[in-house]
Amino acid sequence: MKKNNRKGFTIVELVIVIAVIAILATVLVPTFGNVIADAKNTALIQEIKNEHTNYTMKYATEDTYSENVFIAITKNSTTNYYKFANGSIEMDGDAPKVYTAAPTCLPIYNAATDAVTAAAHTGDGTTCSACGATK
Predict the structure, then answer these.
(1) What's residue 91's pLDDT?
(2) Count of structural domains, the chain
(3) Burial level of 61, CB count in 10 A (0-12/13-18/19+)?
(4) Range of 17's domain?
């Protein structure tokens, strides 16, 4: 009786395993990309809500307070503005809408300096031509 001492995988078995791994990677990599983007959006939404809460707690009794406000958040020397209006964040699909420069017709709360720039409405003196607010 001859005993076969060869141990290991055949080339066919290895090719099949590599093919299965490649198929799984092709399907799962885009999914992980979406998960990361969703997590970043969720974190940003929470940060905007937290900063709006800070703004409300500090300025609710002052003349500069408004229910509608831009929240300025600075990261890596870049400031983005996010509009918080009527109790919610203005969205662009699944992500908060980004303004690189905020219109001056709404107050701007700067999270980094914890200060508010008052609204500077434009128009005929009674109604803002940018946002329609009455003075």
Answers:
(1) 95
(2) 1
(3) exposed
(4) 11-117
